[in-house]
Amino acid sequence: MKRIFAFALLLSLMSVLVLKPAGSYAGEKPDTTATPVESRMQLAYLCGADSVILTATLNLKKEDGTVNLKNAFIEFSASNGESAKSLGKFATDQEGNAICKAPVAGLPADKDGMINYTAKFTGNKKYPAAEASFKAKPARIRLSFSIQDSLRILKVDVTQKNLKGETAPIAKEKILVYIPRIFSLLKIGEITLDDAGSGTLEFPKEIVGDTLGNLTVLAKIEENDNFGNVQGQNVINWGVHKQYYKAEVPSRELWTPIAPLWMIITLIIMLAGVWAHYMYAVYELIMIKRLSKREKPPLF
Amino acid sequence: MEEETNKNQKNTRRQFLKKGLIAGAGVAVGGSLIAAYVDATATETGEKVKVLTTDGEIMEVDKGLLKLPRVSREESHQGLPGRKFVMVIDLGKCKNARKCVEACQKGHHLPKSQEFMKVYLLQDSEKTSPYWFPKPCFHCDNPLCVSVCPVGATYKRSDGIVLIDNERCIGCKFCMTGCPYSTRVFAWKHYEEFEQDKEPYSPEAGSPGKEGTVSKCDFCPDLIRVGKVPYCVSACPMGVIYFGDVDEDTVTNGTETFQFSKLISDRAGYRYLEVLGTRPCVYYLPPVERQFEVDRGFGDLDEKIKERYKDTPYSKKHNP
Amino acid sequence: MENEQNNPLKEFAPQLERTTMQGYTWILFLLLVIGVGFYAFLQQVLHGHEVTGMRDNVVWGVYIVNFIFFMGVSYAGALISGTLHLFKTPWRKPVIRMAEFITVISLLIGPCFILLCIGRLDRLPYLVLFGRIQSPITWDVIAISTDIFGCFIFLYLAVLRDLALLRDYELLKLPKWRKKLYKALALGYTGTPEQQQRLNRATDIMAAMVISIAIIVYSVLAWIFSVTLQPGWHSTIFGPYFVIAAVYSGSAVLIICMWVFRKVYHLEAYITKKHFVAVGIIMLVLAAFFGYFTFSDYLTKWYGSEKNDELLIQLLFKKFYWPFIISNYVGVLLPLIVVGLARFRTINNITFTAVVVVVALWLNRYIIVVPTLESPYLPIQDARPEWLNYTATWVEWSLTATGVAVFCLLFTLASKFITIIPVSGVTGEEKKEDVLI
User: Fold this and answer.
1) With contacts defined as CB-CB under 8 Å, which chain C residues touch A265?
2) pTM to 2 decimal places
3) C202, A264: Cβ pair inside 8 Å?
4) Alpha-carbon distances of C303 from A80, A123, B190, C296, C306, rounded to whole Å
5) Domain A10-136, what fold?
């Protein structure tokens, strides 16, 4: 577990995700506040089909609190203890995250196949340097779909490169299967791999896909001591076709911007009726005034 | 108590791990979830504003660096395309920890006297069991508050969210009497907290509030837009509140994710005061298999907050 | 100049020409009350609505009560004057002008109270710019503005003959501008047959219009309450109930006005006991109707005893016991006894009853508005204790007093401008009573 994160500032990062982001700036301006500053970095690792995604999170511990560091450049590299390969420099966003995606092929691995990933913030006048690293072995998950005896079967095959550089199965590991949703991943099952590095899952019914029923399915190894986080994905149209929401009872729709027709018509009729009579009364008054001009006064 | 704290921390740790992974998944799936936060163009304006840090402290930060993407008033009238949001509240798990209330107040820059989220101590009848009942806005599908608004200041979007445009609202308070759930609050005066947020106004951000206008729980559309769940959902230590897209049939409390339809059918979910025909978008799971005794809800409460429940039938019976 | 000698205006001229010391004191007193009200209003503008007793639960308070009350009085004036005119009620003349004044004056005051209740007065134009037809408030805005126009036209038609008389009465000791104003306003009306015919036709039509508009407008006002789902308001009976309550309160205000002007301008010869009994009987009939509607409304709530209705009724019989008793028992029974039994029918008794009825109906509106807001579907919990119950603050009371003061002031000024009793058609040769009564 502890290998996954170099620093586990659990509570603070938890709240990073919760609260509105408060960014700070890693510019060159000298720090005006003299409070001691400590930079902290965490590194999250995810191995995809043929690339790895490294997410470094940088934040500052000040006397008066913790903030994310934004626009700081993080240098990512991979090494096997002897040679290192730079993966590039990436700036942090306002959550303090810098994300690096690198192809797995060609990364230097040690004799066990492990690759040591490092994220490094060199620091500047204002903020001290910080570094985090993480070790994992690349792996690959493939998903395939088939229908057997009218049952929908999801099959996963998980492989790694063995010492000779050949593809070899990963046995006995636990695979979690998810559907990605707007805010989170919906878990639809678990698979334990057999010796051949594969396993199956009866695909559940009544999972809502898009309007055509397409579903993106993710299979993951999570928090594994050797492989870290590994993920494979595939698309299948086994989902229930998405029906956009309709009110269960026809709405009276008084809340819509436009009023119902009957209401508009009633209003117009009533107002027209009333104002026509007003006009008539005013017309009579005007006529009274005119009459007085025509027949010059009997009274004065 | 000690034990519980530990447990909480474990939970938190667990939640964090999940969240980290979720973020990673977002990238793998399409990058859209993460990309929305990135604002590389922000520059320092030299003007400092006070913000809340992740530790809950106030500190000064440059104004130009504070942006959550904030949409214009016009855009905020459109819902997120193809979405229909829904909330599920598990009454069996609520112990009136009030973290939802506090996170909501902080997130929306609310003054202490305004709460969008309220926690009731309900007891349906004398012999039935009392339970804690967190109540956000129900974002009804037949919202009476919207129907009665004379100027269209409150409106319902295609994604189901009922919002208020505080620059349109004339403060007639008709919506407050129209809402049968007493959800809406009025700014009876100008509050300092309204000034904390200096960004151009957007009904989506809900703040800064304006004196003499109505506001309420808004399902945090600014957070939703960047793929995050509302403040109350992520703040709840018990994971009481689930949030999601009903068309996608999924809700999450940040830790666990469920199929909405399955959750509702397994746990006999219901909507409060269905009889009124307002068709709320907030569902409740009945207070069964309680994780806490009702009394625990009074545990760590401030005396002033405790005072608020003194007239409930439960308090009258148990603390004469 | 024989004409001048017999001019009925002669008797009423002092009313228009002179203001007594008492009169000035009265006006000064009213201005003082209005001044305090203005200060209160300033407080509300400067410090926000926090200076009122209204809070998140009871969002509408005394302001709305006053709004309903004054609008009610106004519609009552319209209904009474319109009806009396249309049916050519023989005794109408001495009281009809007062009813018309009541209509217009309270119609000017009523809407001001809803403005006091609005949080953002600066955004008032939005009601027109962004008006939504679905909202009962929009209905109300349209209805009230239509009503104001209608009532002004009706009042103008009704006073046109008198304006012509005032213009032509040369002995009137008034400043020049007043005479010029009369001349301009009289539109050159000289009473030729065709002018008379046109005037009568217009007046008849407008009388019919104000009656129907009054009913619609007051129903619309009632619907503001009854379209909501609040237990105390969500009632189909509210439209007619409000109309009846309005006319009822208006008849009582009319009696009070009759009594006051009879005393102040010494109109004992014109406004007699007959008139008091006649309007009193209207009040009696309306009291019966009002009692019937009130009973229907509360009976159905009480009998079915839905949970929230039950809570409301409990609240009415505990916390709001006295207002409830005064408005719905005393306010109904007193006129039935005093006007109903011949031996109690004196001018003072009827007037006293009218005062009680006015108070009762104000309280009636209070117990419609406030207790309902204090007993919502979700119990009031998790709110600051000081926010739980509504008590009007001095700001609200002061502005209420201002409303009444403005009513009195405008009435006083109106009576200084035009005779409080229509004088056209009255000639000295005939006996006053024969013509007027």
Assistant:
1) none
2) 0.84
3) no
4) 84, 78, 45, 10, 9
5) Immunoglobulin-like (2.60.40)
